[in-house]
Amino acid sequence: MAVGFRIFTNPDGIDAEIIEAFRKLPGSNVADCMGRMSGMHSEIRRVSKDGCKMAGSAVTVKVRPGDNLMLHKALDMAREGDVIVVSNGGDRSHSLMGEIMVRHAEFRKLGGIVLDGPVRDIDTIRTLEIPIYATGTTPAGPYKEGPGEINVNITCGGVSLNPGDLVIGDDDGVVVVPREDLEEVLASALDFNRKDQGKVVESTAGRLNRAWVDKSLAEKGCEYIDLKTGKRLTGEQDG
Ligand SMILES: O=C([O-])CC(=O)C(=O)O
């Protein structure tokens, strides 16, 4: 077997109803319901038009750093609504796609693309509604030699994911939900979101209970020192 140069086909899909329910939720609420550890790091930014919500089943691609042969293949293999997620070995020196590939992804009605690397042709990409996430831009183009793999476990933006996991994205960034946890995370994220909206109302009106901050500092033994006198104080202090 050509380990390192393989394409696995036919990953399980995700129920359309589950995908649509997640699409309506803020990614931050979903990530908070998974120990706050499943959000991709801040280098993975939306580079296409703001405001479009992404949700779809992952097609995972591991490319040789700076090479997009396997990404070209994944663009042809992915099903309507799928989200292609690419691991690029940390390379930032070569773009992994440009307008021609993005237009092809749009034509094939893919759900979005997440790249652990840069894009080019940003003038056009920033105007398009298909969700594209990347680490930045460079005019330097990709090589097309391989090797690489499709539909294997990868890490992108600091998060490990498998083919068929759910990938969601909004203007904050990208979150991965493992397929075996979908129903549990959806139930808790719906509940979390209801409570979060209540907190926003309270916070806007200046009624949010902040007592937990001083309680937590006291429990952790935080000290207060008067800047003018150098005197150490105990207990809760303002200013
Ligand atoms: O060279 C490539 O494969 C990527 C590219 O520029 C494009 O998609 O426009």
TrEMBL record:
Its EC number is 4.1.1.112, 4.1.3.17. GO terms for molecular function: 4-hydroxy-4-methyl-2-oxoglutarate aldolase activity; metal ion binding; methyltransferase activity; oxaloacetate decarboxylase activity. It comes from the Bacteria. It is an enzyme of class 4 (lyase). One of its GO terms (biological process) is methylation. Substrate binds at G98, E99, I100, M101, R120. The keyword Disulfide bond does not apply. CDD domains: RraA_family. Its cofactor is Mg(2+); a divalent metal cation. This is Putative 4-hydroxy-4-methyl-2-oxoglutarate aldolase. It comes from Youngiibacter fragilis 232.1.
